[in-house]
Amino acid sequence: MAQIKLSNLRHSYTPDPKDDADYALKKIDLTWDDGGAYALLGPSGCGKSTLLNIISGLLVPSEGQILFDGKDVTALPPARRNIAQVFQFPVIYDTMSVYDNLAFPLRNRGRDEDLVRKRVTSIAEMLEVSDMLSTRAANLSPDNKQKISMGRGLVREDVNVVMFDEPLTVIDPHLKWKLRSKLKELHLRVKATMIYVTHDQTEALTFADQVVVMQEGEVVQIGSPVDLFERPAHTFVGHFIGSPGMNVLPCDVSDGAAFFAGERIALEGPAGVSGNGSAEIGIRPEFVSVSESGSGLAATVRKVADIGRHKVVEAVAHDRRIHAILEGEAPGAGETVNLQFMQSQTRLYKDGWLVSRPGEAA
Ligand code: ADP
Ligand code: MG
Predict the structure, then answer these.
(1) Which position among 51, 131, 221, 248 has the lowest Cβ density within 10 Å, counted as fewest Cβ atoms?
(2) 215: which residues sit within 8 A by CB, 6+ positions away?
(3) Quick one: pLDDT at residue 361?
(4) Residue range 13-33, pLDDT digits in tens
(5) Which atom of ligand 1 approaches the CA of 14 most closely?
(6) Span 305-319, mean pLDDT?
(7) Whose CA is nearest to atom 12 of ligand 1?
(8) How many CB atoms lie within 10 A of CB 292?
């Protein structure tokens, strides 16, 4: 196990990159602490697999270094990095038994059969595949093939990091939640550094202690699931995480106060920008309340979705859609209402980045 540091990393797939758009990874500085459970979260095409392949050595970055416990491994091939990688699609030997598949990474490194048996038995138990050990891998369902693929990633006890690249893609939806919690449990048991790559916020938030959110080749925020929910550092994070995501409304800042379509909106604290100009207000639907009278932003209800535990109200104010999540009674479609934003949760963003600070509002 090791601490993994990425320093000044850039990567372009084109031989002669000219501007930022030519880089799949624009500039990455990132430290993964020993033993951590990390998720790398971002939409398809944002550079997650590129980053993973650079850590494992399948790709050599155009610029920058990879350090394992301070040692530069940038030029080392994958086999010398001591890493386990689980891919989107199962990588197993069809002609071998499940046992031999799981044993392969250990035997390949000349470990003695006593240890092989111990590790294979224990991994098979954790993954609940003990009854399949003598089955030929070719005869497994896709789900079970991927479980074995994961097992092959987890069976070695001496790896620097185990990396999973969207491993649940081929798994049936009803099994997904089970494997997801299984992986979390495995992390607690094996204590290896794990990096779990996904475009699915639920997978990321249930697995990870720290989530690294990427967008277009850049890291936009690193934080605990709570950090990402409570203080999105960028409107992209606010939008990408949450269901529905954070409401983002255009506003004008004037003398430290924010105005949405001329109406003053009280911020959590100081605006954190000097001068006047355009910016954005960010407020999560969980912190928007709806009343049929009183003060607030006048809005018209468009739709109400009852999703069991709560209702999602979609309202429109000054041509902008605003979501509110309500626990109890909700107004009906077409009604005129007032929206109130919880002040301590009302943030200001400038060029996408969080600028407001908690405290005494201006
Ligand atoms: P993700 O895993 O987040 O979906 P990728 O790392 O696969 O994203 O891709 C990041 C960007 O790099 C995308 O624009 C993709 O088209 C491009 N890309 C990925 N692999 C290659 C490749 N082998 N050659 C050229 N471009 C690539
Ligand atoms: Mg990918």
Answers:
(1) 131
(2) 42, 43, 46, 234, 236, 240
(3) 54
(4) 999 999 999 999 999 999 999
(5) 25
(6) 94
(7) 24
(8) 10
